[in-house]
From TrEMBL:
Subunit details: Homodimer.
Gene, per the UniProt record: ackA
Cofactor: Mg(2+); Mn(2+)
Entry's Gene Ontology cellular component terms: cytoplasm
Catalytic activity: acetate + ATP = acetyl phosphate + ADP
Annotated site residue numbers, Transition state stabilizer: H180, R241
Record's protein name: Acetate kinase
MF term (GO), any: ATP binding
Functional summary from the UniProt entry: Catalyzes the formation of acetyl phosphate from acetate and ATP. Can also catalyze the reverse reaction.
Binding site for substrate: R91
Keywords noted in UniProt: ATP-binding, Cytoplasm, Kinase, Magnesium, Metal-binding, Nucleotide-binding, Transferase
Principal subcellular localisation of the protein: cytoplasm
Record note on cofactor: Mg(2+). Can also accept Mn(2+).
Length: 398
């Protein structure tokens, strides 16, 4: 079966067409500036040269129509007919407490997605728009929603309830949800495959480190704790997000700077993290260059980031009593040997010993632990699209 994977942002759309017989990517692409002047598609079909399609795209329906046309184009397409697409898998950021796994999309699912908009006002609306556009363009093709939050629904209440009046959980469902679940699920399953073990027998700490970052404790294949919370703002210091801070800082800054809630929220999400500390960039590559050139604030930003990751790794080892594997993934986790090395420094007491020579690797699967007596340290490039396609195939095949 060929499955189309769709990931809609507010003005963008990423897609992949995957042949599940061998899990081969037939084509993939990125649509940019939907609803904005200068919209275009970067379309790559395996074995063919990249094509740039520049067309006005007033909305996601128009964009998806152009994507579908690109898929069947006789020159740069990957299939001859839309009938070859057996199902569509949609990435959806928030499924609330309702969805603990991926689901086939029907009217009831769409109703719940609408109800979850207040939990993810920036992300769920474009996800829903993409689903509605696909349903209109492909009315007879089954569709599946795969949620970033679903993997973390196995957390126990003592890990997801916040120490605020319980009525706010009852009334507004304020709790830790966690995100990056599709990535954490994929790399933990892949780690078990690499180690030749049953996932049910493993305790794994997965570190999804990118511009947005989170750490997850995976015990027996289930998420038991994760660093992101009610929103993706909680947890690690990130590219532009603050991560964990004293809540009293917010009213203090609002008073001192005469800032509105919207201004403070924007500051915490878009002006903080390593960008806020360094004053230079949210790109860790820029920070590493600046730190090596002697920029103290760039170095401090990296140190704060590493320190937060290390704290969560240590906490999750304690949560699970032991750790069989530490996994690094996403842009920083897959490509920055220096960040991986700094995270592992000082964790030797937990059996985490990284081999600096093996650590000289970028963007490919690798095993980095010094010896067989050490905790397995793995680099695993994440593949959320494949995880979405697998879930979609499993559901529609039933």
């Amino acid at each position: 079966m060929k499955i189309l994977v769709i990931n809609c942002g507010s003005s963008s759309l990423k897609y992949q067409l995957i042949d599940m017989n061998g899990e081969e990517v037939l084509c993939k692409g990125l649509v940019e500036r939907i609803g904005i002047e200068g919209s275009k598609i970067k379309h790559d079909t395996t074995g063919k040269e990249r094509v740039i399609i520049e067309e006005p795209m007033a909305n996601h329906k128009v964009a998806l129509g152009l994507v579908l046309n690109a898929l069947i184009d006789e020159n740069h397409g990957a299939i001859k007919s839309m009938d070859e697409i057996g199902a569509v898998g949609h990435r959806v950021v928030h499924g609330g407490e309702t969805f603990a796994s991926s689901v086939i999309i029907d009217d009831e699912v769409m109703k719940v997605l609408d109800e979850c908009i207040e939990l993810a006002p920036l992300h769920n609306p474009p996800n829903i728009t993409g689903i509605e556009a696909c349903k209109e363009l492909m009315p007879n093709t089954p569709m599946v929603a795969v949620f970033d939050t679903a993997f973390h629904q196995t957390m126990e209440a003592d890990n997801y309830i916040y120490p605020i009046p319980y009525e706010y959980y009852e009334k507004y469902k304020i709790r830790r949800y966690g995100f990056h679940g599709t990535s954490h699920k994929y790399v933990s399953l892949r780690a078990a495959e690499i180690l030749g073990k049953d996932i049910k027998d493993l305790n794994i700490v997965t570190c999804h480190l990118g511009n947005g970052s989170s750490v997850c404790a995976v015990q027996g294949g289930k998420s038991v704790d994760t660093s992101m919370g009610f929103t993706p703002l909680e947890g690690l210091a990130m590219g532009t997000r603050s991560g964990d801070i004293d809540p009293a800082i917010i009213p203090f800054i609002m008073d001192k700077e005469n800032m509105s809630f919207e201004e403070v929220n924007n500051m915490l999400n878009k002006q903080s993290g390593v960008l806020g500390i360094s004053g230079i960039s949210s790109d860790f590559r820029d920070l590493e260059i600046a730190a090596n050139e002697g920029n103290e604030r760039a170095k401090l930003a990296l140190d704060v980031f590493v320190n937060r990751v290390k704290k969560y790794v240590g906490a999750y080892v304690a949560t699970m009593c032991r750790v069989d594997a530490l996994v690094f993934t996403a842009g920083i986790g897959e490509n920055s040997g220096s960040i991986r090395e700094k995270v592992c420094e000082g964790l030797e007491c937990l059996g985490i010993n990284i081999d600096t020579e093996l650590n000289n690797v970028r963007g490919e699967e690798a095993k980095l632990n010094k010896d067989s007596n050490s905790v397995n340290i793995l680099v695993i490039p994440t593949n959320e699209e494949l995880m979405i396609a697998r879930d979609t195939l499993e559901l529609v095949s039933k």
